[in-house]
Amino acid sequence: MTPSATRTTTRPAPRPEAGTGAGPAARPPAPGAFTRALRRNLTAHGFLIGAVLCFSFFSWYPMVREFLLAFQKTEDGRTTWAGWSNLATVFNDPAIWQAWRNTLLFTLLALLLGFVVPFLVAIVINEFRHGRGYLRLLVYLPVMLPPVASVLLFKYLYDPGHGLFNEVLRLLHLPEQQWLQDPDLSLLSVVVASTWMNMGGAVLIYLAALQGIPGELYEAAELDGAGLFRKIWHVTVPQTRLVLLLMLLLQIIATMQVFLEPFLLTGGAGPEGSTLTVVHLIYQYAFNFNDYGAAAALGLVLLVLLAGFSAAYARFSRADDA
Questions:
Q1: Cβ distance 294 to 277 under 8 Å?
Q2: How far is 227 from 245, CA to CA, in rounded Å?
Q3: pLDDT (0 to 100) of residue 15
C-alpha cells in the first residue's frame, strides 16, 4: 500500500445556509419578546394617533370648514352653494382696501420696530459679560404678562389727560398728543404697544443665535480693521441669516393677523378707520353682520397670501441649503 493511500482527507464542516435557522446567529426569540414589542409599538402609536386627532380637530377641520364656508351662504337655517358671490361681496366692500392698507402699513412699521429692534437689543445684551441672565429676564418679562393686561397698561399710558407719555411731554415743554384719538398717530401707537408686548421671545432667539457664532470670526474682523458696524454687517448678519429669515416670516404672519391690540386700544377701527385691519374686518363680517360666508372668504384670501409667504421662505431655504 502506498503512503498516499494511507492519507485521510479532512473536509471542513459545511456552513449553515442563510435563512435555515441554524447557527448561533439565529436564536429563537425570547418568550414574550414579541408581545412586549407589540405593546410598546401600540403605546407609541396610540399617543401619536391621539396627537394627530387633536391636531386634525383643532387645526385641519377649521381650515376645511372655512374653505367650504367661503363658497356657501346660510339663510333662514338653510345652507346653499354661493359660488364666488362671497368673494365678490368682500372685494366690492369699500372698507376692504382701507383694511388691507392699514394691515400692510402695520406690518411694515412692525418690521421696522419689532424685527430690527429685538435684533439690536440682542446684540447689546450679548456684549455684556455680567448680568446677562437678569437682562434676558427683564426683556422677556412683558411676554409673561397677560396680553389684555399689557394692552390696558398701554391704554393708560396713552391717556390724553394723565398718561405717562403726555406727562413726559409736559416736563419737556412739548405739545401733548392725542395718541389713540389722532388718525396720524393711532396706528403707530398700536405698533409701539405690540412691539413692547412681543419682542421678548425674538430677543431670546436672536441671543441664542449670536452665542453660537465663533469668536474667531470677530477676532479676524478686528485684525482686518473692521469697526462695530462692519463686524455686524459682515459677521453677525451672515452667521444668523437663516434665523433672521425665519423670524422675518413669523413676524409677517403674526403682524398681518393683528387683532387684539387695535381692538382694545382703539375699539377696532379707530379714528376715521385708521386702525381697521383685515382680521378685524373678518370679525365684523362674522359677528356684526352675521355674514359668515364673507368672513370665511376674506379669511381664505388672507390664508392664501400667508401661504405664499411660507412657500417663498421654503424655496429660499432650499436654495441656501443647496
A1: no
A2: 25
A3: 53
Write down the pTM of the prediction. Answer: 0.77
- Cell (9 digits) for 44: 407609541
* Distance (Å, whole) CA 213 – CA 123: 12
CA–CA–CA angle 245, 250, 131 (5° rounding):
80
Tens-digit pLDDT profile for residues 120-162: 999 888 888 787 888 888 899 888 989 999 999 999 999 988 8
In the chain, alpha helices (H): 33-55, 61-69, 85-91, 94-110, 116-126, 132-144, 147-157, 164-171, 186-211, 215-223, 228-231, 237-239, 241-255, 260-265, 278-283, 292-321
Q: Is 222 left (phi over 0), alpha (psi -120 to 50) or beta?
A: alpha
Residue with cell 413692547: 196
Beta-carbon contacts of residue 236 (< 8 Å; ≥ 6 apart): 123, 210, 213
Q: How far apart are CA 256 and CA 311, in angstroms?
A: 16
